[in-house]
Amino acid sequence: MKEKIMRLGAVLCVLATVFLFPEAGNAAGQAALPAFAGNEKVMYLDGKNRISIEGKHIISVEYVSSNKNVATVGKKGLVVPKRKGKTTIRANVVYKKKPAGKKQTVKLSYKLTILGKAGEYFTYDTDYNGTQYEITGLTQKGKTCKSLYVPSYIGGKKVGIIRWDAFQEDATFHSLHLSDTIKAWRRGSKESHANLKKLYLGKGMRKFGYGVYLSGCPALSEIIVDSRNKNFVAEDNVLFSKDKRTLYCYPAQKEDGLYEIPDEVYRIVNNAFSSCKNLKQVVFTENLEIIEYNAFAGSGLTSVTMTDEISYLNGSVFSGCTSLEEVRLSKKLTEIPYDLFKGCISLKSITIPARVSWINNMAFEGCTQLTQVEVSSANRYFQSKDGIVFSTDGEKLQYYPEGKKGSSYVVPEGIKILEDRAFYGNSSLKEVTLPEGVETIKTSVFSGCTGLMKLDLPDSVHTIQKEAFKNCAKLTEVKLPDSLTEIPNGVFSYCSGLVEITIPKEVSSVGSRAFKGCSNLKYFLADSQNTTFTAVDGVLFSKSMQVLYCYPQGKADESYTVPDSVRRLKEGAFAQAKWLKKVAVPDAVKYIEAKCFWACESLETVKLPKNLKVIPESLFEDCGMLKIVKIPSSVTYIFANAFKKCTSLAEIKIPNNVEGVGSYAFHSCKKLKTATLGAGIESIGKKTFARCRNMKKMVVKTLHLTDNSIGSDILFRSGAQNGKGMILEVPKSKKLTYTSYFKKRGFLGKVVAK
After folding, report:
1. Fewer beta carbons within 10 angstroms: which end of the chain, N or C?
2. Regarding predicted confidence, which is higher, 479 or 649?
3. pTM of this prediction?
4. What is the structure's pLDDT at 30?
5. Residue 539 in contact with residue 548, Cβ under 8 Å?
6. 41 DSSP assignment
7. What are phi and psi of 143, to 5 degrees?
8. Are 628 and 602 in contact (CB under 8 A)?
């Protein structure tokens, strides 16, 4: 009410001025003094610029440069640089204040700086149709500039676009000036310019790319827009569309604690107020309807009161607002989207409006003080009891607040479904009792319930979805119901307290990552009536014993021999088995799937079957103690990451039948000294042997490599002195071509023929 009275008073004052003092109105109607259009005060030697004067009733303009050795200026305002230095551009302007008035003269001037060629500061390329240049990056000199000016022209060709990620994060510029010809800055979603304080947009700027606008500029305090720009306007350093219906950016370092959204604003775009730590409160106006992704994320807001005209909120709008304590949501909202209040650690309660028909429980992730979620009594889809949200028919438990206290909870009778993430992240609960009748436990329902120790699942439960119990580190006992038919991926991942698990009789599918990170799991048991699975010595197999599904990670044995009946090792079968040092795989095994031995931290040796056809992706990745492995001669391909970070591996010989080696296959094998590539190799992926710091010699026997079949940086930072001490041994007939291929990919060592 106070603000409305103040506005009315301001309007009455303006009306009084116009009617009581009409000459003041005439003065206001007079043409403004002429001025230079734009703000192009820096140029490059290989550029050009056309200046002009803006203003009404201009009769003539005469331009002159004070130092013609630095730059000249033509009659029509064309500025041509001659050499590096400074000059003053002057304009003698004859004009009239009124169409019928007397001639007036005004002298204008500004200092112009000519830098070196643009190529000293920028990398650039022509666009897809060759009509203009795109800025693609910065040189070292460009990265270290405090004030960075993007040119209008380079060598007579217009510069129109700044390509994605052109301004790297290690650039130090504090101010950025986009010249008049720049139409688009295609900023990426993760682009960050930590030092940028001042931004100037020229008259041609139309679009910030990929919908990220000016996020990632935590030091930004000043935004200036050329008055001739038809797309944007800046008022009090806040960036709007020209009609002010869209608010694009409120600078992160703007010092105001309270901001009133202008009446014209209909939409607030992605990241508009993100990281504005000084901002404590925003006054929303009646015309505002849409607030987009991340709009106030990480800001200093302490309270939010929405008008009821706001009908749409995108995800993460208030995520990371750690001081946010009070929120009043618009009555027109129909959805509570993902991550809406993620990490709002001061939020204690909230009320869901009447029209909301869908709640994404990720909206409240990390709200560790949230104890109460109320629902409007007029809502036809949800109800709340004791601060817990249910469906109105009483069959679904929607959300149990993350900050709600109490060590135990009994789910009410009649509940059939626990919705996605229903109990997610609640650290107080130790025991949850589910009544008979619960049928479905959806994705991540108990994920992150770090205090949960015991859970009995009633026989009515027939479906448990992925990651339902992920990161329940204290969960030591779970009885799975006989009605269960599937154990999905990640369902018990990182349940480090789990010691044993029994596979019920109807289960016919176990996900490859169902028990990932269960570091103390010692035994698998299987119901004797199960026709799909069996367990022998705690290891899970198919009933026929032809498929080995999972070796428990906490099993204390240091060696293991796979039974002769086995024909296949499933994905991740031995992954993270922390005590195993030696594994023997019989020759009868034909197939080993991806990540089978991933992150076996003690594994030293593995005997692979002699008829194995491929080394699958990430087979031994992160096996830091693996010292000896013989690749069978039957292998035809080694897939990506197969031996990545095998930091104890000293030597590798790739047999002649191998046709290709995937990217990163031996990346970061720090103790690897020699590697031999067999005669059949036709392709090598990127960074295959990168960061092998002790590599001394690579023997290349193949004659089949081409310039297109060798990936980039295959020996990046490998060998002593960044590779200068390495020897590359190649066939005599290929010395010249292979030397060219490997040098092109950064090899710095010595090439010898043999």
Report:
1. N
2. 649
3. 0.81
4. 54
5. yes
6. -
7. -65, -30
8. no
End-to-end CA distance of the chain: 90
Average pLDDT for 273-302: 95
Tokens of 51: 């200046």
Q: What Rg do the C-alpha atoms of the chain give, in angstroms?
A: 34
Tell me which DSSP letter residue 150 carries: E
Q: Quick check: helix, strand or coil at residue 383?
A: strand
pLDDT reported for residue 210: 62
Specify whether the backbone of 507 is left (phi greater than 0), alpha (psi in -120 to 50) or beta. beta
Sheet strand arrangement including 591-592: 533-536, 539-542, 547-550, 568-569, 591-592
Secondary structure letter of residue 732 according to DSSP: G
The number of CA neighbours under 13 Å toward the Cβ of 241 is: 12
What pLDDT, in 10s, does the model give residues 371-429? 999 999 999 999 999 999 999 999 999 999 999 999 999 999 999 999 999 999 999 99
Q: How far apart are CA 36 and CA 530, in angstroms?
A: 85
Contact 333, 304 (CB under 8 A): no
d(CA 534, CA 527): 8
Closest to 382 (Cα-Cα) out of 426, 333, 429: 333
Please name the residue that has the structure tokens 């990720």.
Answer: 362
pLDDT of residue 2 exceeding 60, the answer is no
The two structure tokens encoding residue 263? 């009446």
- pLDDT per residue over 53-67, tens digit each? 988 899 999 999 999
**Residue type (1 letter), 390:** F
Cβ 271 vs Cβ 213: under 8 Å: yes
DSSP 3-state of 44: strand
| Residue scoring higher pLDDT (216 or 501) | 501
Mean pLDDT over the full length of the chain? 92
Picking from 536, 534, 554, the residue whose alpha carbon sits closest to that of residue 544 is 534
Q: Where are the beta strands (DSSP E) in 380-439?
A: 382-385, 388-391, 396-399, 408-410, 417-418, 431-433
| Six token digits for residue 341 | 């209040």
- pLDDT of the residue at 397: 98
Strand ranges (E), 74-221 = 78-81, 85-96, 103-115, 122-126, 133-138, 147-150, 153-154, 157-162, 175-178, 184-185, 198-201, 207-208
CB 598 within 8 A of CB 572: yes
CA count, 13 A, side-chain hemisphere, 497: 16
Residues 6+ apart with CB under 8 A from 7: none
User: No. of H helices and E strands in the chain?
Assistant: 4, 65
Contact by Cβ (8 Å): 457, 481: yes
CB under 8 Å to 513, separation ≥6 — which residues? 489, 490, 493, 571, 572
pLDDT digits (tens, 9 = 90+) for 464-490: 999 999 999 999 988 899 999 999 999
User: Which residues, listed in sequence order, are joined to residue 479 by a DSSP beta bridge?
Assistant: 456
* Residues listed for the chain: 754
Question: pLDDT confidence of 189, banded at 50, 70, 90?
Answer: low
54 membership: H or E segment, kind and range: strand 53-54
- Residue 590's closest CA among 640, 529, 561, 547? 547
Q: Report whether 265 contacts 245 (CB < 8 A).
A: yes
Q: Which of 33, 79, 74, 25 is nearest to 53 (CA)?
A: 33
Phi, psi of 736 (to 5 degrees): -65, -50
Cα(31)–Cα(410) distance, integer angstroms: 76
Query: pLDDT higher for 637 or 52?
Result: 637
In angstroms, the CA 222 to CA 199 distance is: 6
Give the rounded percent of residues in the chain with a pLDDT score beyond 70: 95
Residue 611 one-letter amino acid = N
